[in-house]
Amino acid sequence: MENATCMNSTDQYTVGMLFFEDEPDLYTEPTAGAVQHTEVEPEQPDTSGAQGAQQPAQEDDNEPADPRKYPAIAVLDHQASGITSLAYSNDGRLLASGSDEAVIQLWDVRNQQLLHTCAGHTQSISSLSFSRDGQEIVSGSEDGQAIVWSTATGQQHLQLGGHTNDIYHVTYSPDGTLIATSSVDSTIRLWNSRTGEEVAVLRGHNALVMMTAFSPNGRLIASASADFTARVWHVPSGQELSRLRGHSGVVYSLAFSPDNRRIVTAAEDGTARVWNAQTGEELVTLREHLGPVWTVIFSGDGMNVISGASDGTIKVCDSYGGELRLSLDTGDMLVNAIAFSANGDRVCASAEDNSIRIWNTATGELLTTLAGHEDKITHLKFSLDGKRVASSSDDGMLRLWDLERLIFQPNQVY
If DSSP codes are grouped into helix, strand and coil, which group holds residue 406? Predict the structure, then answer.
């Protein structure tokens, strides 16, 4: 593998540019409690000799710039590079994007600048995860390697080599001491995040491991696999604790309940299921969707399960009895990407019309609809506090949305 290198924003090698707007705010008359937002694309100036970046239109010298022309507070242009993964630091200060050109870009959101472009992988970036303190980020790639980078310098800190096929997912443990990587080679590997030492290899799946999730207390880790099962492992010993059998399709996603005792899984068979994490007993089967269920989460209090599926709906169900409490609908449009806020109180989904809808999962209220992307939206990511959403698209752009400004407040004058 080639040595990892990092270029700062002044180096000649530049993959993209980030443009910020001070007051992104364009509204039409609200309907049924929701407000629609439409992005007005600025007139493009002559870009001969430029890097292909999207530049704001020039305003008349005698007239102030109209800040309402830019609902997205940041627009990142990856130019020829497709965006394959996104990550948001816990403090909301950093945004990271991975590309199919095998580079990672680190963006300083507060200071509105590209910090580093990190090159070291040889194939597409499949997954990114920030450490809890935001001082490091780990990247997983189709080249079978994981690399830990310093966010301060953009330099490689550790290289985690051991998988024999593509790495599909990477994540840090809650306390930041471990990194979990899952792979097409059917294994999960645990690494010491400071030394890079391989702590454990978790074997048992017989197909691609789609993702892993640590329990909130960090003592358990669960894995979702294309072998139609999920498994729960005891982190200190590396032993399999329980096997979750019952799905008849690929298990795409899973999450622990806030009290560490239950796991919810989402699968290709159109169901979400709640399990006892210790015993593997199936507690509830949710059959509300009409297509593959792509992602699932518990609400912050553990009382509800929130799931999103390809049928264009998001369902909120009682996590104990399974009763349907809310159904959120994109209008019979295919859903391309779904993300939940950390406590599950907001969900966003992108539909085939290239818009992003934001709902309140407690009330079912459609909070806002965001427009601006010109092609299929591929990734959505909430900031930890749920106040911002980052979106990427096949149009080559990454947009950052400030929901506190964009969500209609009845008593606030815009």
Answer: helix
